[in-house]
Amino acid sequence: MRKSEKESARTVDFLVLGAGIAGLRAAMTLAEHGRVLVVTKEARWESNTHYAQGGIAVAMGGASDVASHLQDTLDAGDGMVDRTAAEILVREGPERVGELLKWGTHFDRNGETLLRTREGAHSVARILHANGDATGAEIGRALAAVAQSEKNIEFAEWMTACSLLMEDKRVVGAELRDAEGRSQHVLSRATLLATGGAGQVYSETTNPAVATGDGLLLALKSGAILVDMEMYQFHPTALNIPGVPRFLLSEALRGEGAYLVNAAGKRFMERVHPLMELAPRDVVARAMVRESFAEGAKRPGQIFLDMRSVRGTQLAERFPGISRFLAEHGLRLDRDRIPVSPAAHYMMGGVKTDLCGRTNVAGLYAAGEVAATGVHGANRLASNSLLEGLVFGARAAKAMAIDCEQLPIPKTWEDASSTHPRLEISNTEAYERLESAIYALRGMMWRCAGLLRDAERMQEGREELESIAMEVCAIQGCASVSRLATEARARIEVSRALLECALARCESRGAHYRNDFPQKNSALARMHTHYRADGAVTLERLDALAEVHRDEEYDGKSSSQRMSAGTACGSVS
Ligand code: SIN
């Protein structure tokens, strides 16, 4: 294969794709070891992190607090959580959050005391929040402010990573394109995918428009493995007003006393789970769908969030962002029942990594929502995602620095220029055709691979997907629609992986529920779907990659010994 020359490329030590919490935290550590370029598809703040409302779960009260956070994480994950990953999350979390405080993150306080709230499946109130319901935005602000002041960190905004550059089976950088489709090659010693989730494969989602799963496409094409792609979390309470985006209504509302009621105004979660509205997310979301079709209704009845009887909390002050958005639609938390329904929210699966962000492809790392360490199992515990970004972003950065210490910056890459025939159509036509293919795909995914699945509908979805894929493939050669084309291809690959993995897991567990296999199969508890670029799915144990890390990082102590060591574990600098 032809080699392209370094002269036409820009070089950095470390390339970070994505500027959410995982990317920014990683950049902070990487900057100590070399020049870092952080690439974002839009303005640097636009990411899932920015929209995270409820908070960040963290056990800052010592060993027993850490142990209970671990237990809640294991329980919510429905038998599939990788225990070592979860131990790392809860044990290293306090030190990482301590850094956030040092870097100027303003969490809500009463005097000096940090305020904490509770959310679904947490046994205690341990969730820190900021500006009431804008926790992600505040953390993102603080991290971006310190990152911007680092001389070794540079941002490239409004750039889409269209492909990864490879040399001898190693990732050596990425091809970026700007809004006009102009291409730039960046060569790096190591590349981190911190591109977030893929809620935009569904028509109903709380995720912003940028969450199209681009990192998963890049990873697959370079030979990385995706795991647990069937495990997509549906948040129970997105605002449901026709024609209005599915705005997230934080689980913290239920933590502060909101109920769910059916169209007749009756609570129903007491019939479903002892934790009622604070049951794990997958349980609440499914119960809402079932309740909405109660008594043989052909059309779903509306479910509402009801906070009208909550006393002692100034709701507009506690939830200012949510209250403002509701006010734009004539609603008030203290006066109205708020119409809600579940929406795609968080991807538990993703690019398979060890516990330091290493993928199976040399030079390629992943952290945050795009990565899968097994830390969330089949259902993520509320507000563990920001913590995951911090903890595993820092760990990935450390591994990148160590692995690349002796490595020169690459000079060349193998040229895999696209051989797609170019369609002779106008940009406007290409744009419109891509938009309508994406619209069809998102509707299909909601219908065929949403909260309640079965083989027949998923097979229908598979067929629909392949005809959408052919249409997108024909259009993608048009450079000026390169961002939309990349996003369309990413959605197709993610949808394909999700459908194939969901068909392969013939049981119901956590977020993955099959009407045709409604029970758990205990033989599958430790088995994870593995999806490769050729479309093959296997069910395997997760440990193969994780073992690499376990030996390095731990000193032979049993897991209970490690837990009793409490929070004094932070080995990442
Ligand atoms: C929420 O505020 O309900 C979202 C937090 C999360 O996704 O964990």
Can you put this structure into words, describing what you see?
With 573 residues, the chain is α+β, with helices and mostly antiparallel strands. It folds into three domains: 16-231 and 348-415, FAD/NAD(P)-binding domain; 234-344, Flavocytochrome C3, Chain A, domain 1, CATH 3.90.700.10; 427-537, Fumarate reductase/succinate dehydrogenase flavoprotein-like, C-terminal domain (Methane Monooxygenase Hydroxylase, Chain G, domain 1), CATH 1.20.58.100. It is built from 15 helices and 23 strands. It has helices at 21-30, 63-76, 83-102, 135-148, 214-221, 251-255, 281-292, 315-318, 320-328, 385-403, 427-448, 455-475, 482-504, 543-553, 559-564, and strands at residues 3-4, 9-17, 36-39, 56-57, 109-110, 113-114, 116-117, 127-128, 153-156, 160-167, 170-177, 183-193, 226-227, 232-239, 259-261, 303-306, 338-347, 350-352, 364-366, 371-372, 413-414, 528-531, 537-540. The strands form six sheets. Strands 2, 3, 9, 10, 11, 12 and 19 form a seven-stranded mixed sheet that branches. Strand 11 (170-177) and strand 12 (183-193) form a beta hairpin. Helix 5 crosses helix 13 (482-504).
The number of distinct structural domains comes to 3
Instruction: Report the bound ligands by name, code or SMILES.
Output: succinic acid
Described by the principal axes of the CA atoms, the overall outline is globular
The biggest beta sheet reads: 7 strands, mixed
CA-atom Rg in angstroms:
23 Å
Give the structural class. alpha+beta
Q: CATH homologous superfamily of the largest domain, by name?
A: FAD/NAD(P)-binding domain
Helix content: 25-40%
Strand content: 15-25%
According to CATH, the fold-level topology of the largest domain is: FAD/NAD(P)-binding domain
Report the strand count.
23
N-to-C span: 40 Å
Annotated CATH architecture of the largest domain: 3-Layer(bba) Sandwich
* Spans where pLDDT lies below 50 across 5 or more residues: 547-573
The CATH class of the largest domain: Alpha Beta
**Mean pLDDT across all residues, rounded?**
91
Note the total helix count: 15
- Described by its quaternary structure, the protein is single chain
